[in-house]
From TrEMBL:
GO terms for cellular component: cytosolic small ribosomal subunit. It comes from the Bacteria. The keyword Ribosomal protein applies. PANTHER family: 30S RIBOSOMAL PROTEIN S1, SMALL RIBOSOMAL SUBUNIT PROTEIN BS1C. One of its GO terms (biological process) is translation. Coiled coil: none annotated. SMART domains: S1 (SM00316). This is S1 motif domain-containing protein. It comes from Streptomyces filamentosus (Streptomyces roseosporus). Residues 342-411, 426-498 form the S1 motif domain. Belongs to the bacterial ribosomal protein bS1 family. One of its GO terms (molecular function) is mRNA binding.
Amino acid sequence: MLDDGTVQLPYVYRVTKYDPADRDEHGHYTGSEDTVSDHGEVEASYLQAVAAFAEDTGVEHLAVREPQVPSFAHFGSEPSVDGFGLAGLFPAGPTGFHDGAEVPLDTALELVRAMLRDSGAWCRLEAEGAFAVHVGWDQYLYIGSSRPCEEALARTRALGLFPERLDSSPYEMETDGADVQRPGDDEFWAGLRWAVAACRAGLLEETYVEGASRWHRLTRDSVDTVRAGIAPRARLAVWPDLCSDVDAVIGALPAEGLVECVWQDKGGRIHSAVADEDEFAELAARLSDAEAAALLSVYADERAPLFTAVMPDDDGVVRARWQTEPTPSDRNWALLKTLHRGEIVTGTVTRIADFGVTFVDIGGFEAMINIPELSWRPFDHPSDIVSVGQEVNAEILDVDPVRERVSLSLKALHEDPMPLLTVQIGQTLVGRVTKLIPFGVFVCVEEMENGFEGLVHNSELADEHLENPQLGIQVGDALLVKILDIDTVQRRITLSHRQAVSGL
């Protein structure tokens, strides 16, 4: 079993036209065979060998995996071919050359031919758990099977080729299992709609074949239309919107180096081009009529989209094995998928915002605690309850993967003490005045810091109708009050000084 979950085929053979006897002590070929295809008898022998192994394995169809085309330049040993050798191989045209596309054996053999000729397109050809064909450099062919294929081996030797047993193909797909494979599912597209509506995003890069991308400019109304046209198993990258100040974009061209420019023309079409300093003048001329544009780095360590995804199959499962560089947002998504409402988490208070929200680091993600969720008891400022650097336990109230928000509660881990006070309804006590307001005074009904406070309305301060019933009362004064009502839902305690005094 490989790290990505695929099954390692037990029988793997390297099939070549090179006699193993013609190798030096380092394994390098020293014979006279050409390293390019002869476009003739030897090439036909390679294809017959693949067909023989497929027949022995019982395979009639193969799936295209990780298809590639040259991205910037063709570095093959033969001249590049228009259409990368794919012309006529797919009923729907070149768009049929996508990850997961299932092709009959005859088509698969033509793809092998194109790869032997180094026509530009490359892919792995596989029947999951049963068969695989990988074409390497210099006419090296790797065939894997779930069966020993004795007849195919004999047939291959009879064709003048040399099969050699290996432990595995050097072109086997390898993943470390740690990559974030975010699916381009309903949740992803909901998040994209929100990002577009919030003006955080406006551009979608669709890599439908390694080395070839399509660009889509997004609006609130176009997201669903764009989604409907995305290629199967495509890799998606979301970027900020294009800039309407095209002159500023042109002015930002570097002194040297490669850049990718994406722009929208006046007809609404999206274009992209990779250019270096020798082509910047031509690029600037092309941008002169653009409606909006953006410059992106072509270097992997500088190319940072907002977030990424891989399109799942119709059953919702991501089977594409694209290697993506996860963004902070992708890592947040991966963490959020592990969190659930009601779960208790431990984190460290990182900051208390000016508007009162407390932020807590829970494994590299900042969750938030809104003011009402800090404590059951009254307080003046969040710093009365928590401090930066403090480790806290909290309950998860909500996980919103679309907006990348996690809401926590400290008070949910404690019993609400207010209901315990309801037994005191009707009782009289002496409390401390904490606040004067135009329509009454607040009085603390508990002898403790951050004790619950109740309101004595002006009408409950004195018997007679006074113009200023608060006259003579100051914050900190002791006041005799009677508890009239405790509303645990509205968090209100109603008090009366007048009734407390009359009851003496």
